Structure formats: C-alpha cells, structure tokens
Amino acid sequence: MESWHDGETVERIRVAGRLARRMLDLACSLAEPGRSTDEIDAIVHEAILKEGAYPAPLNYLGFPKSLCASNNDVCCHGIPDDRPLVNGDVVSFDVSVFLDGVFGDNCETVIVGEPDRDALVLVDAARAALDAACAVVGPGVCLTAVGDAVAKVAEPLGLGVVKQYCGHGIGTQFHTPPLVQHFPNRDKFTLKPGHVFTIEPILTERPTELFVADDRWSVYAQDAARAAQFEHMLLVTPHGCDLLTAHS
Asked: Coiled-coil intervals in this record (predicted)?
C-alpha cells in the first residue's frame, strides 16, 4: 500500500501533524536537569488525551510508554525511565499521535542544560540533514534524493548515519511503504502529489554498529557514540512539499 491520500484524508493528517508538533514541543520544553523522561512521558500522555487523541506508541507491538525518549547513545526507540536527566544529556523525543483515524509523527533532539561542543555539532548536523532532505522533496523526485542529501551533510563532518532505521509512509496506518532510506541507495520510488511520509535521519558522533537492548526496544550504539534524530512528516504537493509537523 502506497502512502497516497485523497484531499479529505490529507486535511485530517494535517490536523494530526499539528497536534504531534505541539506535543513534541511540550516534551522538549520539559527536558531539564532533575526531571526524568518518565515524568515527561506522563505529562505528554495526559496532554494528548486532553486533545481527544491517543499516544500512538503506547502498546504498539508491546511498547510500554506514550513516547520514545532516546538518551545519549540510544539511537532510537528508547523507553522513558525514572533516571533524572543531567546536564549535557542529548535526548531525542519521538512523539506520535492518533487522531480522527490518522497518525501524526515527529521527532526532535534537545541538549539538557549546558551543551558541549561535540553535542552541538551532532545536533546541529542532524537538524541540518533533515532540512536538506526535506528541501529536495517534490513531485517527480525519486526518494533516493533523500539519502543523498543526508549524506552530504553528515559525511564531511565524520558523522555516522544509521542505516537500519528509516522513514515511512504514514496516514490512516502508522507505517506503510515507501521506506525512506537516509543514506545513498538505489531504491526506486517517484513521488507525486498526495504522498505523505516521514523523513527521520539518525546521526551518530562517528560511524558505529548498533545493538538492541534486553528491553527489546532501545537501540544502542556499540561504542557509546551519542546520537541525534530529527523527523518531519511531509506532504508532496504539485509545487513541492508541505512540512506537516513544522514549527508554527
């Protein structure tokens, strides 16, 4: 099933995307020394419910929390816990909602307290990689352009790009084709107006291998390299694309 949607569905997805953005902004605003990601998860959970939506990660394939909080060397799918955040932590919050029959999905990385130089380089590059990838999206574009754009940002800085996890189509289902690779590849998928999908590159401080923790969700860098991830949900339009999870 492709990620193409008709006009009525797209309008519902727009609303879900805006809500996902607000909930992600809330999560990021709460990241401060002394507060746990468990606390942040609980606050965001209640905020999503008050909006008449459901936190999409909760119970998805058994995931136990309402958002993903990936700290430092956790590349993605981190489970919120009761460890207080400390100065310098690099935390990626992935917030997804289900509203009116459709999904909204986005992610952002924040640095808790005072950042160190390497953390700033990593987070700024991850944000720039997402921006560069979004800038190439439009009708008639092959999705391979996304991976090329990410690589042009990450490789000159010596940063790693996680290859095992990718973006995806989204709408009435949480994850659909196409898979959106964030590294140079030969996949063939031509975009057309009405396609909705995510771009969500994960960059690491250096190229590294990954492993999945005993909790069966948290994906770690083997050599403790820190990671940063940013994600937007995009709609292909006749003249380019709309960022459905853009800052308002």
From this structure: none
Q: Give residue 83's pLDDT band: very low, low, confident or very high (50, 70, 90).
A: very high
Q: Which residues constitute the domain of residue 233?
A: 7-243
- Asked whether the predicted pLDDT for residue 167 surpasses 80, the reply is yes
CATH value at residue 99: 3.90.230.10
Residue 175, annotated as binding a ligand:
yes
Cis peptide before 139 (omega within 30 of 0): no
Tokens 């800085």, residue? 157
168 assigned ligand-binding residue: yes
Of 74, 98, 78, give the one whose Cα is nearest residue 38. Answer: 78
Question: Does 94 appear as a known binding residue?
Answer: yes
- Total-model pTM: 0.97
Average pLDDT over residues 2-22: 93
| Residue 105 marked as a ligand binder | yes
Provide the number of structural domains found in the chain.
Answer: 1
